[in-house]
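Ticket #4471: complex job returned nothing on first submit. Input attached below:
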Amino acid sequence: MTLLRRAWRFFGSDSQLTTWGALSHQTESFYAARIVVRCYYAAILFFAVATLQDWSVYLDRRETLALWPVCWLNAVPLHGGILGILIGYLVTAFLGAIFPARRWARALVFAGLLEFAALDNSFGKISHNYHLWVLTAFWLVFLPRAPVRTADRSTRQRFLLIFWGCQAIVLLTYTMSGVGKIGGAIYQLCSGQNNLLLPTGLASIIADRLLQTNSSSWLGPWLLAHPWLGWPLGLAALYLELFAFWAAFRPALQRWWAAGLIVFHIGVYLLMGITFTQTVLLVGLLFLTAPLYGDEQRGGTIMKRLPLLGWLSRKPFRSL
Amino acid sequence: MAAYRILRGWVALFLAGYFALGLATVLHPRQEVFPVYSWFLFPLVPGEQTRYTLRLQETHGQRLTAPLLYQDAEGIVTNPHSVTVDELVQQLGLAVQKGRADEQQRLRQVLEKNYLPLPCQYELVAITFDPLVRWHTGRYEVKLLAQYLSSGETP
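Support reply: We reran it on our side without changes. The output follows.
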């Protein structure tokens, strides 16, 4: 446990209400998190219903490169197997939206979502729209039974911990992406190549992405005409991604970090034409509502809690 | 509180495990074991590079007036800008370069049955370019790697 405490201290900030502190306001946080969980399952139902219009596309497929969760498709008639996954996804999503407090319903939602996401990615390319939903649906299976009036302090605490686990895994994936980018940039910098830390780095990525499939985007061509404008944007995106995991330990930052990540996704769409709508909804649900913090957020305190920048901003004042 | 502490340990283990396994998937041929992924999206800035693409010669049994890259075949294929097709073609290109016949066959089946207007005749080509140069000048070099008929034959 000492290791866990050390990790918590490393990611947390000494000048803030910590997650532990936030959890002490647990009744309020518990109510908010409980509502977010219900909305989460309603959102999955929305996705399942929205997928109805694509059923014919899936059913027209005549060959797959099946991922492991749907490898059984190779042993059954493909059309029937795909239909079974689609119906299963819709039915389990419906059950989850009606009975979000029941573990069996949440387990079925996880299974349905896992199968559907695997099917969606079994035609040659793995896209990452549903990964975070699958991972969070897995964690939510372990929510304790917590009736709103009778849940005791320990149950509420476990409920919030599972909820926090969902937040943490989402933010961790952004940090992993940031680690990849910073690692790649250092490697290319040392090799004397163009890299993300240079003014033309982002422009090269955008040009490559648009040329790959001869696609277009709203602002990509404009940025390619003014590549130096991509420099601060690239660095800001790198900061947001790399330090995202810190926000899991600093609840006061969560709403603003989520807003930043959503702006980042909007920017990616405008520049590269890549959509992450499912992820944006999940980030909004888990963080914009800031269930582990509440509404008391002031600009100055937010600044102090920013990883690296908060420390840098305090440094000059310390020396006075 | 014991149950809470145990649960907290599991959460920490899961996060640490996902981080470690996710980074380890970089070593996997497909760079991912769904849903575990490194999340290394655009980690490197592309310089001069070689990518693979399809060049269509005949679609629905009719010869095209001039060979056409798949991504330029607006109105001929359902979605010329498909990133899935692009990814499949990259895998096919690597399979051809490494002489993996079974994998080539499997990838061609997926491409032809799901994404190509049958019957068709097409080529696999390698194009070499620098993204910024190609964007501004349209310049790239093409090299023919293989020719295919959708019936599974190689002309």
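Chain A is about 70% helix and 0% strand. Closing as resolved unless it happens again.
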